[in-house]
Design goal:
The chain has 565 residues and is an alpha+beta fold. It is 39% helix and 17% strand.
């Protein structure tokens, strides 16, 4: 070989080596450079290197698609073909467990406009020379237009395809279950379960939920006998630990968040798309037992009164409580008394001290338990299917309080964040709803519903206390829960109930209603809320801009027939 040839060969080898070391790297899922995984054997690494060598040969670039002609150039009369991008983008390769996944794909990044003549499909088969010579002047055959031709390709993060839709890298994606996810380098990741208001869900979703709960309790349908055994053990677990700390301030909220997640995980073994919905009882406070939740259809929960067995709906006999409660015991309800109102919930959410907030929410929680009464007002309350809807709402209200700001996200009883609870988890592991025990959850409000708390949450607690509102006496049921289910001493019960009434006291006044308006639903008039906003701004001129937003929301509520909390 002559010296010149040797020099060229050496330069070519150096170029190839340079290409491999500069355009190929090991990367993790986010695209950041990293070292090859230590768990991959040398032989596997060699095989991967060989594959990368092949990929490096074919770079991202334009390929002419000669099957599709866009037209003929107006001056040169040469064919203009449709171009497409092809090849690989080897600059970022994600290697996990010995497999190769491209993080980037070859995509168009430049187009150019070209003036062309087009002709009918039948004419293109006559040939280009005849087009130029014979038919150059016939407008029926040729038409002058401008087309876009692909002129450049580049490497861009891979997109995600869900169903028949394509999403860009970094975009929010909703998977087949309706979970909110992220598209990252061609993968749908970080999916967040969406828990919805049960009474606002479509019938198909309600039916799927009630059927999954029924099947799980029976070991029928999509539930196996092993799943029923898990379900029975989970319900018995709540009963066994009832008096062992899970209702104390140190565990109540995080432990039940953990319990909800475990129940939801089990339900998703029956139906992968199931999430635990919530019952927004404060939205039904005007007539909680007239809520559609208690309708008799199979997609609702059925009624029940006077402590008798539930007579209709999906949870009537042969739905029975778990064996830990006894043999063939039916679900019972009484449905007496009242539930907390929107104003009382708003006053609670305006509390900035965690212990005061948590104690008030616990009191509301117990009041609803014993307003439903029957099975729900007992140590075996987890046997009642409505238990999970109720606790999902309690968890939702805690999440709303946490969302007030960074200082509220990790607020908890001093010194208790890292103490193991019953079951082994710590409160710290459950504090962030968006990532608790490796699971992301969010509570969804339908977009067509206005959230009244968009108004109330912005007002100080002192302002909320001054707004005239109805005062249902659900605290009596809260006292029953504390005394007869929690078995607390009478003196302590009286003190806790008094604290509840002191914290939630707002100006009492008879609220005139017409039977179908905002005041009927929530026990407070929009006019009184608006007047309170005006007085708040007079004493706090710096809040004028915020008050304008509040007035807009109030007007929207005034014109809207649907309300939510």
């Amino acid at each position: 070989m002559r010296p010149t040839a040797i020099r060229w060969a050496t330069l070519f080898a150096a170029f190839v080596a340079f290409t491999y070391t500069t355009t190929i790297c090991w990367a993790n899922e986010s695209g950041a450079k990293t070292t090859p995984p230590s768990g991959i054997s040398l032989s596997t690494k060699a095989a991967i290197k060989g594959t990368l060598d092949q990929i490096a040969i074919s770079k991202c670039g334009i390929v002419i698609n000669r099957d599709i002609i866009l037209g003929y150039r107006t001056k040169k009369h040469t064919a203009v073909y449709q171009n497409k991008c092809s090849g690989f983008c080897p600059s970022r390769i994600d290697i996990t467990d010995g497999s190769i996944a491209q993080l980037y794909e070859c995509r168009p990044n430049l187009y150019r406009s070209i003036k062309v003549y087009t002709a009918p499909l039948w004419y293109t088969y006559l040939g280009l020379p005849r087009f130029k010579a014979k038919f150059a002047g016939l407008s029926l055959v040729k038409q002058k237009i401008v087309v876009s031709q692909l002129a450049g390709c580049g490497c861009a993060p891979r997109r995600c395809t869900v169903g028949n839709r394509t999403y860009a890298h970094g975009a929010t994606v909703y998977n087949g279950c309706g979970d909110r996810c992220k598209c990252q380098f061609g993968k749908v990741i970080n999916c967040c379960r969406r828990r919805k208001s049960f009474t606002k869900m479509p019938m198909s979703e309600r039916s799927r939920y009630t059927q999954a709960v029924y099947d799980l309790s029976k070991g029928t349908g999509g539930a196996t006998a092993a799943m029923k055994t898990q379900y029975d053990a989970m319900i018995a677990q709540h009963t066994a630990w009832f008096h062992l700390g899970i209702h104390t301030p140190d565990e109540f909220l995080p432990w039940h968040r953990w319990y909800l997640k475990n129940f939801e995980d089990l339900l998703r073994k029956v139906d992968i798309c199931i999430t635990v919905p919530y019952w927004d009882w404060s939205g039904d406070a005007a007539d909680p037992w007239g809520s559609p939740l208690w309708n008799p259809g199979q997609s609702w929960f059925g009624a029940g009164s006077a402590g008798n067995c539930v007579p209709d709906g999906p949870f009537t006999i042969p739905f029975y409580l778990t064996p830990s409660e006894g043999v063939n015991l039916c679900l019972r309800r009484h449905r007496i008394g009242s539930v907390p109102t929107a104003m009382q919930v708003a006053t609670m959410l305006a509390e900035n001290n965690f212990n005061s907030f948590a104690n008030t929410l616990d009191g509301m929680h117990g009041g609803v338990h014993c307003s439903i009464h029957g099975t729900m007002c007992s140590v075996g309350s987890a046997n009642a299917p409505e238990f999970f809807l109720h606790h999902a709402n309690v968890d939702r209200l805690w999440a709303k309080w946490q969302a007030k700001g960074p200082a509220f996200q990790m607020a908890f009883t001093a010194g208790q964040l890292d103490n193991p609870m019953n079951g082994g988890a710590t409160p710290r592991q459950l504090m962030l709803l968006g990532y608790h025990m490796g699971v992301c959850v969010e509570y969804a409000v339908p977009r067509w519903i206005i959230d009244i708390f968009d108004i109330l949450k912005q007002l100080p607690q002192a302002v909320l206390r001054g707004i005239p509102a109805a005062q249902p006496q659900w605290t009596q049921q809260a006292g029953w829960w504390l005394a007869n289910v929690r078995n607390l001493p009478q003196a302590e019960v009286r003190e806790l109930v008094q604290q509840l009434e002191d914290r939630l006291y707002v100006s009492p006044e008879l609220i005139p209603t017409d039977g179908n308006d905002f005041a009927t639903r929530f026990g407070v008039r929009l006019e009184d809320i608006s007047a309170a906003v005006d007085e708040w701004v007079i004493s706090n001129p710096s809040k004028e801009k915020a008050s304008q937003r509040l007035r807009t929301l109030i007007e929207n509520l005034r014109d809207d027939a649907q309300f939510a909390l």
